[in-house]
Amino acid sequence: MADSMNDTCPSSSRADRPACVAVDWGTSRFRAHLVGEDGRLLDGVASDEGMGRVAPDGFEAVLTRMCAPWLAAHPGIPVLMAGMVGSRNGWREVPYVPCPAGPDEIAAAMMSFEIAGGTTVRIVPGLVVDGPEADVMRGEETQILGCGLDDAVVVLPGTHSKWATVRDGRIESFRTFMTGEVFALFTRQSVLRLLREPPVDTPVERAAFRRGLAAASADGGLLNRAFHARSAVLRGRMAPQEVDSYLSGLLIGAEVGAAKRLAPADLPIVLVADGVVAEEYREAIAAAGGDVTLVDPQRSFVDGLIRIARLAGEVSLDRAR
Amino acid sequence: MADSMNDTCPSSSRADRPACVAVDWGTSRFRAHLVGEDGRLLDGVASDEGMGRVAPDGFEAVLTRMCAPWLAAHPGIPVLMAGMVGSRNGWREVPYVPCPAGPDEIAAAMMSFEIAGGTTVRIVPGLVVDGPEADVMRGEETQILGCGLDDAVVVLPGTHSKWATVRDGRIESFRTFMTGEVFALFTRQSVLRLLREPPVDTPVERAAFRRGLAAASADGGLLNRAFHARSAVLRGRMAPQEVDSYLSGLLIGAEVGAAKRLAPADLPIVLVADGVVAEEYREAIAAAGGDVTLVDPQRSFVDGLIRIARLAGEVSLDRAR
To answer: Would an 8 Å CB–CB cutoff place A254 in contact with chain B?
Structure first.
């Protein structure tokens, strides 16, 4: 971890004066950034001390250890968080805000509490869709607001992918798809793990991904088409190195096929993803007849936190993000 | 284990003279029966020493220990097997027979070998569908032949459910669905395990099962509808005790929906299942517009082994099963 910038240094410009600490604390990862007044990321730390690995009374110790230099150098700096840290099994349970929800309602429902050393911690609430189609999110609401869009379908791939509809700047509703988790279960826990080998070659992977995409809309459905990652390998019709990409195409194709049918056709699709995941979703959405605009996941998270905190009057920031 | 009947006893009738030992040796279970000349099950043993838990050189020891009294009392009795015991990681790899395949081809492809004590072991081959829809089975071919049907769709629920089309007494083709395995993954390994509790009350379970069945044909698809077993519990719209039944309905509904669309509409549906599984599949198939005839899984397995062995001239049995 690099030392953070020191805002008491006479040569520091306003641009690198720290305004807040932004923490993305999910089930499996802890990520924090020191954010400047202009919104720039001045420093960052990360670890695998996700909510799932922290005891109920252990959150404060992880935070103060991970961010010690920042908290020491900038006494009283606001610490802003979103993610599963605000869930029932997290640090503090922050009640869900019901959809439709805009930035004002979300900002008003932030939970604040003080920890040792006079630091105030603020956790963004998750969102809920109530009714027969009940659904929940924690963390993605921050990324969605960070996109700063008035009207869009926002797609957030992940362990539990979200497809959210934003209208007039408010998150109207959303759906969760267990795509990332089922991929992990298939490749690590199921019978399909037995014949797979790690992917090696990009062109081969791309072809296998496309084969999976096509399988997602073929007859038989997911429960049948997933088994092809075993039977086709047994019969020499799929290489062991193609299994992961085929399953990725099959699962992303199933998600996109179902989600795209539900999404309002009049809204642009914004994809909050990077790297291979961004390319795979872009291709799957294109195959379903859609174009996407890409947004960086980390940037949208920090921008969302800043936006919510500004509305709550918690931080002073120059940029209208 | 009960002692087996002794065919040297002067009072024994032909009906209880043992004709063979029938072994169903799958991935997770070993089950053996001593079968009389009239096809009756004279004795039975079972253990969890499935293929997956037996070392490559350990199969003979498991068999001779489990069936020791029968082998000692009836020297030279044929031992007939089917299931994953004939797979690459089983005792001996018996090459797959390609579909369409009838009883004659399957009987001709049995693998025989002798073990210590002069016992001959015979393993039934699995079946394969080749081509782009490659699929494999081991064990179910024996149950299908045991149904003794000329024309039917035979449904075999399980870890990897099979839907097979039988025409003119031959197994024309089949499809595998990972229904049972995905249910186990969801309820034991996934995030959905966190909010579930063991089912307690039959009427509640039945209602939750039906809710899952309905969800299988609703929008959103499997990856979305499975997550309801978390979000609906979080929002008080599903009891923790309903999670298993809901997921069972969702997965069986997804299997039946896809499989029924593929199955020839002119053939009767035969369901090889018992207990709760039989009731659940019967209901799911009825919801998809089909009637079923039930066949007992254990009986069909033994009948299938006897039928195959008789065609191969391996056992003398009176009943034309």
So the answer is: yes
